[in-house]
Each structure stands twice: as C-alpha cells, then as structure tokens.
## 1
Amino acid sequence: MAGRIKIRAQKKGDITEVKALMRHPMETGMRKDQAGDAIPAHFITEVSVFHGDQPVMQGHWGAAVSANPFLGVRFAGGEAGDPVRVVWTDNQGGTGEGETTIR
Amino acid sequence: MTTIHAKGISRRGWLRWAMILGAAAALPGRVWAAVARPEAAFGATALDEALAALGDTPQVHEGIQFTTPDIAENGAVVPIRVEVDSEALPNVRKVSVLVEMNPNPLAASFDIPPGTEVYIETRVKVAQTCTLYAVAEADGQLYMQSRETKVTLGGCGG
C-alpha cells in the first residue's frame, strides 16, 4: 500500500516552507470496531523530508499523530525548481512518497 | 543425540535469520536513518517515564515557542506548532512532543540537521484535557515549554 502525499514547497525569503498532507488511518491499536474486535495498530512510524538528496528532517511518530497526518517544516536555502520529497514508512511495512518542486 | 544436535543447528539458523530480518526491519527503507527511533520513550506509559527515556528533566526555556489551541473541540485533531528561536536557544537537533494524559505520552520526535529551521507543525491526538509539552534537545540538554489544552471530545473514541 503506497500512499500518495500532497506536498507543497514554497520559498519565502531565505526559507523554504514545506507542507505535506499524508493519507493514513493512524490507528492506535486501542480502538474496537462495531463487532467489538480490536482494530490492529496501523500508523506511520518514520517520515523524512529531503531537499534534493539532503535530509531536511526525520520524524519518528507514534500512534498519537492524527489520522491523515499534516506536517510543516522549514529549511534554509533551496531555490525555485529544486526537488523536495517526503517519504514515510508505517508499522505494517507500508510506504508513501510525494515529490514537488520549490516555487 | 543426532536429533538434539540437528535441533541446535536449526535453532541457531533460525536465530540468525531472525537477526537478519530484524536488522532489515530496523532500516526503514529509503527513509533517512541517521538517528535511531527513541523506542523506549515511545513505549513509556507515563510522562515522567517518557521524559526520563529522552534524557534528563527538561528546564523551561523561553526560546521555545509552543503553540496549541486553548480549547480543542475535537481531541483527535489538535494542531500544534513548535518553533525555537535559534539565537535564544542554539544547536537544537531534536524536538519531541508529549501529551501528558495519552496512553503513550510521546506523540512524535523530530531529528533536525543543521540548516533546518527548528520549526515543526503537525496535528496530534489528545485523549483528554491535559498539558502538552514541547521538548527541545540542544548540546545534550533538554529544554521545554508546556501548554494546557482543554479537550471537549476525546481523541481516542471511535
């Protein structure tokens, strides 16, 4: 299950602002479905932001990050047209990836 | 005797496989894995335990700007922002967000390389009205800022 990521990177002065919206249920493993059965934990554990090949941020997440997670980060440098990429992996081996260019 | 011996080998073989698979699982694919996930802190079920696993007791620092809503109508989606003034508190390489009354207080932890602004925006679940903590690590020391958020509807229902 590879999830797509909505991602935007915008240059503001010397700073590039990245905003990413991921599609993911972020199940804690503590909820039950209508039949009373536990819903297995399913959440993004690692998320990284890259500017070209350079890592800009690595996040380690728990199940307490909201469903369909939003992430905003800012880094110095970056020119219009440079690629910015966000990738994640979850606790069930799923991955997601999104790429955009700075504008 | 032979069966025991054979069992011993297979068990060792199995262990070796388990180690290889474990190592593979620990490498999160294409995700930058420069810094390991703070597993012990994520597993902690109390705030003190989580903070102890992250390092020392954090000191309150005014250089950390922590923004959360005063009242969250929906605890499942609580927007938060952590911003650190790099002049007031330089060399921050890690920012963690903790929610005091959640089953596992540590919600997220971010590794920040030099050149990246210490600025994180995300949304977290907050089980009930409690204090949220933003903890920044700089030069091996922990600093924090805390904010209380009142929750009208808990973040763990469903």
Note: The radius of gyration of chain B is 20 Å.
## 2
Amino acid sequence: METILIAFATGLTTGGLSCLAVQGGLLASSLSHQIENTVQLKQKPGRKKIPRKSVKPQFALPILIFLLAKLVAYTALGFLLGLLGQMFQLSILTRAILQIAIGVFMLGTALRMLNVHPIFRYFAFEPPAFIRKKLRKTAIEAKGSDLSTPAFLGFLTVLIPCGVTQAMMAIALGSGDPLQGMALMFAFTLGASPVFFAVAYFTTRIGSKLEKHFMRFVAILILVLAVITIDTGITLAGSPISLSRLFKTSNSVQANIIPNTVENQSQVTSTTDQTNPSNNSDQYSSGTDAESFTISINVENYGYSPDVIHAKADVPIILELKTDNIFSCSRAFVIPSLRIQKILPATGVETISLPAQEAGKKLPFSCSMGMYTGIIIFDL
Amino acid sequence: MAQKITLKIEGMECPNCSMILESMEDKLDGLLQVEASYHKEQVKVEFDENKVTISRIKAEVQRLGYRVVDEG
C-alpha cells in the first residue's frame, strides 16, 4: 500500500510536469480542433457578432477525457509490465542499461525542447504518417463530438511515456506482479493528472510567450532528472564512480576521521578480536567463528546505514540486512558485480553470503533503482 | 496535372505540428497528398496545379502559424 502511495506522490510532484513536457504535444493536438473551431467561428463573414465568452474554446472536458483515456491505457500497461516482469526476471545489468537509455532519451528530449540542435528532434516520437492520417479522419468523422480525438490521443500517450513514467514503468516491471504493476501505474498516472490538468488548462490560456518560458523550465527540470537517471543507471551497473557515490564518499571520508564515531563507518570484527561488544552491538555484528564475519546493515527508507563499510579481505562475509517498516526501493537490494539481488521483507532480517574478496577490492551495493548506494571496502 | 513540392518549414515545435500541417489536405481543394515531418522540418505536398497554386499553399502554411523558408 505504501509503495502505491509513493507512486501517487511521485506522480503528483514530478510526473505531471514531466509527462506534460513529453505528451503535451498530443494534448495540444487534441485541443487544436477546439481552437480551430473557435477561430473559424470568429472569422466567418456575415455572421452575427458573438459574445466573447460564448466562443471561448471549451478545454476542460477534452483535457479530462484525454487524462481518463491516459489513465486507462497506463493501468493496462502496468498490468502487462507486471506480467512481463513475472515471466522474465530482468538482470541487474539489463536494468542498468535500460536506466541509462532512459536517461539519454530524457537528455535528448530536454535538449530538443531547448532547441539546442535540430538533431535532437529525433528524440521526439513522431507517429507514423498512416496513424496521423487515421487520427485526422477519425476527428473529421466525429464532427460535433470532438471528444474521440482527445480520447484516442490519451491512449496514444502510452507510446511516448515521459522519463518519470518510464522509471515508474521499470518499477512496475520489476514488481513481477501484474496486479502490483497495474496498481502502481494507476496510482502514478492518477497522481500526475491534477498537475497535468492544471498546467494544460492554464497554459492554453496564458499565451505563447509564457508557454515558451514554462516549456524551458520543464526542459531544465527534465535535464536535471536525466542526469540523475543516467547516474543511477551507472550506479546500478556497479561502477564505483558515479555522481552520487562521489558525493557520498566525500561525506564518509569526513565521518571516518572523527574518532569514536560509528554512524558512517562499520568494521568487521571476529568474536575473538572483539574487545568491547557493548559498544558495537548495534552497528557491528560479530562473526560466529574466526573464519567468517558478519556485517550488519540497517536498511532505511532513504538509504543504508552504514553506507561505507571496511571489511576484512580474504574471508567469507555474511551480510545481515535489517529492515523495520521499510517501504522504499532500498528494500530491493543489489550487489551488481556479484549479480546478487534480493527483495527484503518490509520488516525483518535477511542474510546474504559473500565469498572472500581480495584485499583492496571495493564492492558497491545499491537499491535496484541505483538511488541509494553504499560500498564495502576490503581493506582490513 | 499533379505536381510535387517540398517546403522547408520553420516553427514546428513538436511532432503534432505535422498533423496540423497535414490538415491542409482536408481544407484546401486541389491538394492530393500532404506529408509533413517534424524531424526534417519539411512538408511534401502533391497537388493539382489546375486547382491550386504554390503561393496559395504557402499562404495556408502561414495561416496555420508556420513559415516557409525554402522550397524545392
């Protein structure tokens, strides 16, 4: 349930703007008929002067129909993704490549919106000519009831998901459950709808100058999201170098030099080595024998604690992952270089056995989205 | 007699501008086929020169909010 709420909140906060940037064109197209009708009505010679209010295009209903169709389409897509995830378990590397590809797409989209170079126009999906023709004919045949166009275009948005939606689609895919995937996409799309509606509704009224400024703002927002998405993809690929890790490492180094501080650093201690167990009982767990060592990590909603762990080389390690009412993606724990991925329970303890690692080896770990990271350094 | 022309367009902001430009086909008599491309910023028009002139087509493009920068 909490995951669904998070999906809804994500839609509410970032989904609306991001989706509007990518799918706004389709919405504008569905509204163009309304606008055109108004223009024709205004221009028709010999017609009695019509009060301004009565020729104002009615945008609210087409936008609502558009969003409703979009909601239905994405809910169905969520179901299919969950089903697909159930059938094929995506490897960590595949997910990392997918994430980086999504980031590159977002980057291209942002640069296209900023008119950096005509080449970036190819980052926008242009429906094939036959679909455009079919769409036009459908709109003409609908005559008075123009609502079929926004409905059809609402369905079509499924072909051009925005970056945030794609990230949510990846989560739906990763859920490996059709119902969970469906609920996730429904909650996210529903969450994105109010912002989408409000911005679309007012944008049609605020004029093209302001609209240009707004689109620039959205483009910059997408640019930032693109960098984050690519960075999380790099993290997920197991690279020890990424923006988030660089930032994290510098923090941890500072923490490491503070004497008697255990918050950001863990050590692995064998039973025989441990001199003061009461000091370490929370952060460090001792090994059960001299040959194996246990590292205890608290999995939190916003990361892992400790996130920089110094461990002994050349001995097997047991990772003990503790969760307590955790519902974020930190529960989907991965160690890319060892191809280990584990979905942790919301509350409980899960153990992972790691083979002995050579001295100096660094083992990055993260959540399955690459957002929350940590590293085990075998230097003891 | 059918003629073909390719117009280079300025002002196509999104892929849906293609649809808007292609809507000329339904409004202007004498247009046989209109195919626009947002990627290439162009519109290919096949028309009957006995029914419609190039300048009339250009004027329609302008009316839709775009600018013809080149033709070939």
Note: The beta strands of chain A are 265-267, 293-300, 303-305, 308-311, 317-323, 332-335, 340-343, 348-354, 362-367, 373-378.
